Structure formats: structure tokens, C-alpha cells
Amino acid sequence: MTLAEGFEGKEYDAGHVSPSACPACAVAPSAERLAQLAAPTQARLMLSLPSAHCAACMSTVENGLEGLPGVLSARVNLTLRRVSVDAESHVTAEDLIPVLAGLGFEAHELDPGLLSATETDRQGRDLLMRLGVAGFAMMNVMLLSVAVWSGASDATRDLFHWISAGIALPTVAFAGQPFFKSAWASLRVGRLGMDVPISLAIILASSISLYETIHSGLHAYFDAAVMLTFFLLAGRYLDHRTRAVARSAAEELAALEVPRALRLRDGEEETVTISALAVGDIVRVRPGGRMPVDGVVTEGSSEVDRSLLTGESLPAQAGPGTQVAAGEINLTGPLLVRVVAAGRDSSLHRMADLVAVAESAKTQYTSLAESASRAYSPLVHVLSFGAFGYWLWATGDLRYAINISAAVLIITCPCALGLAVPAVVTAASGKLFRKGLLIKDGTALERLAEVDCVVFDKTGTLTLGTPTPTNLADLPDAALAVAAGLAAASSHPLAMALAKAASPALITDLREVPGYGVEGLWQGQPVRLGRAEWVGAAPADQTATYLAVAGQTHAVLFADRLRPGVETAVAAMKAAGLRLMLLSGDAEAPVAEMAGRLGISEWASGRLPAEKVASLTRLQDQGHKVLMIGDGLNDTAALALAHVSISPASALDAARTASDIVLLGQDMAPVADALRIAKQSTRRIRENFALSAAYNVIAVPLALVGLATPLLAALAMSVSSITVSLNALRLR
Fold this sequence. Notes:
By secondary structure, this protein is an alpha+beta fold. Helices cover 50% and strands 18% of the residues.
């Protein structure tokens, strides 16, 4: 008996949240639990939970799974929408998925071995730690500097300088490492990146200050060195926060592959890894299971859900001779499948390769700040070394020449330039987040402002992806109750929607006929619900299931509910002069109906993932900047390839990872706002560049003629950075 069978008949309330334990108890397992975790029979299972979104979901899933025999622990990661389960070796994902379905959560098994070992944002934490150290040191060094400025002299001044050195030098050496490492990496390949002048400015300010302190000089600029480091780290952390920290979509796709399969050999079943399968092997796929391989059905009859791969909302009938692909879900009956391709040769893995290629192409896009720095960095060095050479020749004073050279480097330090983009993106990201959009990539807004063509997916994007009965009021009450009673015995998406929409009648002798529907007895009469030809009904022109009862047939019609705000967003895009297209893997009739309803003149149905990629490639070859909006596995490669991409939060993990922007709610209207705000953001970025240039036009000549000390240069640089940040905040 499987776990799912052992828990049949139990009710799971997805909305119920049991009282949680104290935080310490939740983090620190008991000694008994630790002993269980150390047991050699333990297995680690990872499942994707696309519909988990809140703390109640987390508690429901964890409590529901931890109550099962053999499950040692369950931990939900809401950010990645996954649950990690430690269980005894006999527990499998196939046991847990039906239980999660009973709790109200769709689940897909992931292969932990194909995901990165760590899920923490180490770089962000590292930058934040260094920023905190620099900020704390800056405050202390500034206090000592105030004492010197207030009149401290001779031995007292020297003492304060030495204390400042003791604080500042270790701080700069530690907090400045991100810049030093980046600068060294640039110099090793013969390139002057933005971090080269930054590192030189920090090192020169610190070195001059130490030299002045050793020789009892009047001025030391440790405060300038630490202040410079602090503001630069602030800019670097802002930049990091705007960039995606999610895993590669290619990894997510690869992890969706079923890691194990049931192979038939000499009439006996054996569980083997996918890598152990060979072409020609026969595998058994049970109802509710995902196809582990590409292959051909040799025995059995069922329906398969291809929505993850093709976007087709209706299941397809499968029987002997039907081709199936890895990742498709077997719905109603057991199938025997002859392996045609497995593992790296499967269609799912080839799709992952498509995504990887598209992602690498997108990374070739450089931000405006990076482009500007290519010309800016060499100019900074020329000015600094030119000032050093001139003043050494003019005065013969090495110390004075080095001071002016350092002041020029600091005053021209590209801190404001480095903040120009992150400050705007952070302000715009906050504004869009309040509207329901999460910006994942630092250059997404720049690219969104360039868009002139928008490509939509249909199912799950323009619609909510859930079929809804539309003509229940036209059916007799008795027929509707019979239909609901039959539907309750099936896992077909249309049957599940019908079962939720009406009160069921009592049906006996229920039997599901794989690939056709459900039949049983109502008041001693045979009744059927399923395909038109099976129940003897004439097929309708739209999505429907058919009922045969008391010698009559009835059609229950379905429509996918339009996502809120879609009509508003599409109208705003058309008003802005954007070219709109609808590319869907769904059938022709519903796609045509949707395109006509929204006024989208360019549309195509039955599009496979590679065909969507080909369509986007043609558009981009024609010079279009394409915004792709999609949610399915079949959209992932296109999302990664597009100039910029958006996916709803309800999308598959891989689609959300491949996209640049995530729509957090159901309302599509904020997408039109994002296009408008992106154009505003680009204007603010260009204004920041202009402010930075104006600052340099005024400040650099003062430094070149010797009117700015390194400390004044650091203060001027700080003022320019604050000005850029305030201009960015106008977006809010």
C-alpha cells in the first residue's frame, strides 16, 4: 500500500494553519530527529510547489507532510516555491504528490542533484557586511577628524592620526576587497574597468595619509579613504540588489526531469535511474506520473497533459503508437512506453539547452553605466597622471604632486556614475513592486524602455489557466448533478472544474475508461461523462465535455477565464503604438477567439517551444525589440531569448527564473505601467549621467589647479552621489 492509499479518506484543509512551535524548536530538531536524519536509510526529495505563496501555505504543506509515516522532516522555501523532504528510503515523490494534491497544492518532482548546492545569496550578504564595517569605521574616523579640525596640534594631532590609521587601514583593506579583486582581474587581461580608478583612489588616499602621519604632517585623509569606500560599497550593493539572484532557468528545466523510471525486464518491474535506460527499453508510467523519457506508447490507453510543454489546455488521447515526451503527465490509465530518447537526449533536456543558449545571448547586453565607464576610466587615469607629471615638473615637490594626483583621482571617481543606474532602478523597482511587479534584472528597465513589439502566450498568461463551466444554467438540475457525480471520480482538468461547480448525485459502480471518460450507474441507469464520440453526442465548436443520461446527451461548455486587467493592458499597448502578437500552443479555435476578443490581429496556434523561439528570432532579426509575456515550460526558451520578458507568479519555476520581471498578482494592468515607468527611468538615468558630467566639468578643474585636497575631493564626490540618488528618488 502506498502512502497516498494509506491516507485516502482523510480530509486536508489547505486553509488551516496549526500553531507553530517556537523559532528555536523549529530550527533545532530533537535528538531523536537528528538520529533519524543520520540514518543511512534516509532519502532527500525535492518537489516544486508552483501555487505556494504565503506562510499559511508553508505551514499547511510542512504539517501535512510531516504527519506521514516515513517522513522525517519537510521544509518549504517560499522564495523558490519548493519543499525539501527528508524521508526513509522507501518513500518516493509519487507517494507525496497525491497527498499534496489533497492539501490543494500542485507538485512536481525535482532532481536535487541537478540544482546548485547552496541557496543563499552569499555575494549580497558579503557586500552588506563590508558596507556595515565601512559605515561604522567612517563614523569613528570622522569623529577623530573633527577633533583635528577643531585645533588639535602636534602630539595630540599625531595621536588622532595614528588612531585613525589603526581604524581606517584595516577597514579599507577588508571592505575594499570587491574593488581590488575586480581591478586586478581587469588589469590581468589588459583592460581598464571602472574598478581600476576606484581602487587607485582608495589606495592613494590611504597611502598619502599614512605617509603624512609618519612624517607628522598637518593633514591626513583617512576619513576620505573610508568615506570613499563606504559610498562605493553602497552603490555596489544597490546594483547587486537590482540583479537576479535566482538560479539559471536551464538548471530548473533539467531538474524537472524525472530522476527515476519503472523499467520492465522479463516481466518484472525495477526502479532505475534515467541514466541507466537505453533506447528500446520498456517503461511503465502510472496514472498521475510524469513521462520520464521520450518514447512511443506500446500498450494501454490514457490521456496525457501536455500543458507544461506545449501550452495546450486540453489533454490529448494516448494509445498504442502515440508519441510522448519527457515531462508530460499521464492522467487516467497506465501506459507502457518504449524508450526513444532519455536523459540528455530527451526533448525536455534539449529545451534546457535552448534556454541556456538564449540566456548567454541575453548577458551580452551591457548597461548604460558599463558602456559609459569604458570611455570614462581611461580619461580618469590620463587626467590624474597628467596632473602628477605637471605639478612635479612645476614645483619639484613629490608630496604636493601626489596630493593633487590623488585629489583628481578621487574627485573623478566614478561613484556617481556607478550609482546613476542602480539608484534609478532601485527607485523604479520599489514603485513597480507596489504595483505588483518584481524587477529581477538590473538592465530590465533599460531594455523595457526600448520595446516596440509585445508577444503574448495565451493559457495561464492572458487567461488564468483554469477552465470554468459556462452553460450550467442551461442544463437540467438532475443532469447537472449526475455530471458532477461522475466528474468527481476523474482527475481530468475539465472533470475537476465541473466537480467543484455543482453538487454531485450519488453514482454507483464508477469506472474510469482511460482516454474516454467516466461511467457508472445512477438510479440503476447507465450514465457516461467524457468524449463526444464515446457518449454519442455531436462535438461542439469549443472546449466541452459530454454527458449521456436517460437517453439524452448534454454538452457542458468551458472557457478559460480572462486574467483581470488584460483588456486594459492590451488597449494601453496598442495606444502606445506597439506591435502585438499572440503565440500559443493551444488549439486554433480558442486562440482565434482570444485574439478577436482582444483585437490582436497577429496570432498563431499550435506553436511548439522551438517554433516560438524561431518566431522571436525572426522578429529580432527584423530589428524589433521584443517583450515576451508567458508562463509555461513551452515559453521558457522564448522568455530567455526575448529582449525583455515577464512571467506571472503562477508560472512554472523555470519560466519565472528565465524572465526579467515577475507579475506578482493576477492583474495584468501593471504591465502597461511598467512600460511607461521604464521610459521615465531611462530619462532619469540619462539625467544622472548629465549631472555626473556637470559635476566633473566644475570639480575636475579645481582639483587640477590644486584647489581641492583629497578630503575636499571625497566630500565633493559624496555630494555628487547624493545628488544622483535624490534625482532617482523623483520616480517615487
